Amino acid sequence: MKKYDVVVIGAGPGGYLSAIRCAQLGFSTACVDGELSANGKPTLGGVCLNKGCIPSKALLDSSHHYAFIKNQAAEHGINVSGIRLDIHKMISRKERLVQKLTRGIAGLFKKNGVEWLQGQGQLLEGNQVQVTPDGKHPPDTYQVSAKHIIIATGSAPTKLPVAAIDQNRIVDSTGALAFTEVPKRLGIIGAGVIGLELGSVWSRMGAEVVILEALDEFLAPVDRDIAVAAAKLFEKQGLDIQLGARVTGTGLNNHEVSVAYEQAGEKQKLAFDKLVVAVGRSPNVAGLGAEAVGLALSRRGAIEVDNYCATNLPDVYAIGDVVRGPMLAHKAAEEGIMVAERLAGQDRALNLELVPWVIYTWPEIAWVGKTETELQAAGAKYKTGLFPMAASGRAQAAGDTDGMMKMISAADTDQLLGVHILAPNASELVAEAVLAMEFDGSAEDIARTIHAHPTLSEAMHEAALATDQRALHI
Ligand code: FAD
Ligand code: AMP
Q1: How far is the CA of 123 from the centre of ligand 1 (A)?
Q2: Which ligand number lies closest to the CA of residue 192?
Q3: How far apart are CA 93 and CA 108, in angstroms?
Q4: Catalytic residue at 64?
Q5: Is the beta carbon of 172 within 6 A of some atom in ligand 1?
Q6: 353-375 confidence digits (pLDDT tens)
Q7: Binning pLDDT at 50, 70 and 90, where does residue 254 land?
Q8: Which of 90, 211, 222, 296 is placed for a possible disulfide with 312 were both Cys, Cβ 3.0 to 4.6 Å?
Q9: Which tens digit of pLDDT belongs to each residue from 292-318?
Q10: Is the pTM of the predicted complex or chain greater than 0.85?
Q11: Strand boundaries in 100-174, DSSP class E
Q12: How many other CB atoms sit within 10 Å of the CB of residue 292?
């Protein structure tokens, strides 16, 4: 039986980066992964590269360019006629990108000396892992042993019993990233991150999109000022977001999918050409053999870990979507790197409070730290600074003036508590706030930092000044 210092199970952003870091630190490392691409070939990169972050951003960018040409180019004096969407080309561009990046990981594994063990991994007693390669029968399984095991098996779309996925009429996020034509009527269950991103893609390309959301509140985890403004913008863009709409059943015929839902005590029905189920994601523990080896799981099926991602079993760690915390690629990656460095004796920790969140709509939504609602519930004393993007010269030059920058700092010490952004490129802008908060920075620190002109980042500077009523452009 082959022995390694570290065996990582799962090669998503958590697992592949953890494996590379382990190898860099001198550990003999193998990474077991059973993911298959859309055409059935073994692939690395997990959900993020194959059917998550990367393909969705490819389609968001393509559809954004299309919407810009259709709706905004003329305002810039650019008159375009004969615009024609080539969905097949758009989808194949996305697929080529996925192939390029996933193959890149195979290259990184080779360069760093990480061994890829293709197949499903199952935990056995005594720090062993059983690997079942794809397409092989149980006799072809084999075992490896490891001083340390890192579980990074990620998550899968949560199933909704009343809307079974057939990947034809009723699809999950993977199916919705591969439509070969624009559905005329698109229903989406769930107005969370994924529902809004996919709704944006297809609505920009001409679909009539209705999003059914069970909760009465739009984007409950998001700061209210941002969520309320975003809801108005998304409605204006053509997303019909129905809140308090709990889906109770679906029906299929040759032409359409019907959806029954309850809203304010009334039974309602709608028909769509395609329906996307986007009601969240669940940790991947099936087939891992957790129960047999006594690996502790939480009530929602996530692997229980401490602050350093240690499980209840000695020398077994778990990271990323399969444990508590935000289901985000960068959180998975940083946990994987932290575990690798701790195995090498480094003093590493991760502050989950400072994980940036992003929703890739347009404008984008991004934030770090606490919302006002959370601070009020905790009885905290704080001050806020708000700066509308419409007052930013750069936003005006771009013709993209929707949104705002909001900063919250402690009333007494001025320490930054939260930064909430609804703006073009919010995903990039939030990095400054994360860095400032990592250094326990204050709003005054940002106010005294020189921001290049004219940039959208000046809105961060102005929001900091606004916490002290000294914003200059409003
Ligand atoms: P995963 O990426 O889920 O990878 C786990 C891997 O383990 C998979 O390859 C799986 O096949 C494999 N595996 C599972 N069980 C076993 C087993 N027993 N043996 C062997 N292999 C196994 N996050 C962001 O931060 N930004 C975004 O823009 C973003 N966009 C997204 C868009 C969509 C449509 C979706 C669905 C998700 C998006 N996410 C985004 C979330 C992001 O994809 C996940 O948070 C991230 O992939 C989690 O990484 P992970 O390493 O924990 O696991
Ligand atoms: P997220 O967790 O960001 O992926 O968001 C998933 C969204 O789906 C949440 O806002 C849930 O409230 C919503 N949701 C879950 N179940 C249902 C349902 N049966 N009908 C409508 N929305 C739902």
Answers
A1: 20
A2: 2
A3: 23
A4: no
A5: no
A6: 999 999 999 999 999 999 999 99
A7: confident
A8: 296
A9: 999 999 999 999 999 999 999 999 999
A10: yes
A11: 114-118, 120-124, 128-132, 142-151, 155-157, 170-171
A12: 11
DSSP H or E run through 292: helix 290-293
Q: Which atom of ligand 2 is nearest to the CA of 160?
A: 19
Model confidence pLDDT, tens digit, residues 192-230: 999 999 999 999 999 999 999 999 999 999 999 999 999
Please count the residues of the chain.
474
Ligand 2 center to 214 CA (angstroms)? 6
Q: Which of 88, 453, 461, 473 is catalytic?
A: 453
**Widest CA span in the chain:** 72
122 vs 320: CA distance, rounded Å: 18
Three-state SS annotation for 160-220: CCCCCCCCCCEECHHHHCCCCCCCCEEEEECCCHHHHHHHHHHHHCCCEEEEECCCCCCCC
Which of 232, 194, 191 has the alpha carbon at shortest distance from 214?
191
Nearest to 211 by CA among 259, 158, 250: 259
- Distance CA(256)–CA(250), nearest Å, equals 10
Contacts of 200 (CB under 8 A, 6+ apart): 60, 63, 234, 237, 239, 360, 361, 362
Testing ligand 1's pocket by substitution, the residue of 18, 48, 155, 358 carrying the most ligand atoms inside 8 A of its CB is 48
Q: Is 321 in the pocket of ligand 1 (CB under 6 A)?
A: yes
Ligand approaching nearest to the C-alpha of 214: 2
Q: What are phi and psi of 117, to 5 degrees?
A: -100, 100
Q: Quick: pLDDT tens for 445-461.
A: 999 999 999 999 999 99
Q: Which atom of ligand 1 is nearest to the CA of 35?
A: 11
- The three-state secondary structure class of 359 is strand
288 pLDDT exceeds 80? yes
Burial of residue 77, with CB atoms counted within 10 A of its CB: 0-12 exposed, 13-18 middle, 19 or more buried: exposed
